[in-house]
Amino acid sequence: MIDLHTHSLASDGTDTPGELINKAHASGITVLGLMDHDTVAGWDEATMYLRPGMSLVLGSEISCQTLDGTSVHMLGMLFDRDNSALSEVLATTRDNRLTRMNRIIARLNEAGYEISIEDVLAQLAPGATLGRPHLADALIAKKLVASRDEAFAELLHNNSKYYISHYSPTPEDAIKLIKQAGGVAVIAHPLASLRGRTINIESFKSMVEAGLDGIEISHRDQSEDERELLREVVARYGIIATGSSDYHGNGKLNELAEFTTKPEDFEALETRADARRVVRK
Fold this sequence. Notes:
The chain is of the alpha/beta class.
């Protein structure tokens, strides 16, 4: 089984990279993608724990924003981690997450929610990428909500009055950076309407022109109608369809390998990188 989109404690997952590898192995996954948000911090540990017979696709889920303010997540896979241009953008995005978090907290405080940045940072693993799930965990610890799901449903979703975007490249710029770093670009859950605003179908044209390699179609947050629209986009532009769990450990209901990528589609993706970077044991 091939699951190309998972998260660890290096961003907003709840498993260490090593624990994630062990769980993936126990689940029968043969190819695992580690896509922590805006970071490569979990790569080394995941590689160290890789089990015989498993392959590891290293990458990052890069936060993007369209010119009209729609949030987009771009999976950069199999890129050169030493590429300076991409590394700088990831670092800038991470740094701006702290400013954004303080502004969200200020809005929550104004509404009567007693929460502080210190409460949020207490939920953050060393070196992890700060995100809204850590704010959700802080709200749980303060007994202001019961779960991450409740926190996002009531307070932290993209259409919430408390939501604030942060610095991020456009999807097209992110794709170009990934390609310049020798990697593969796959847009994650682009029509997941339950998450908030989604991109216009016609906007795929500019992303394909920038070098988009594939679309994550099979994902629990996209309806069958949404998946069918995306299959039409894949067919129109001759790009690659993927399916993934978007597993976050205990932070979300998503289960490892609940959606997977076909072997032939993964092979087609791998050939689009400029070097063989899949880690194998």
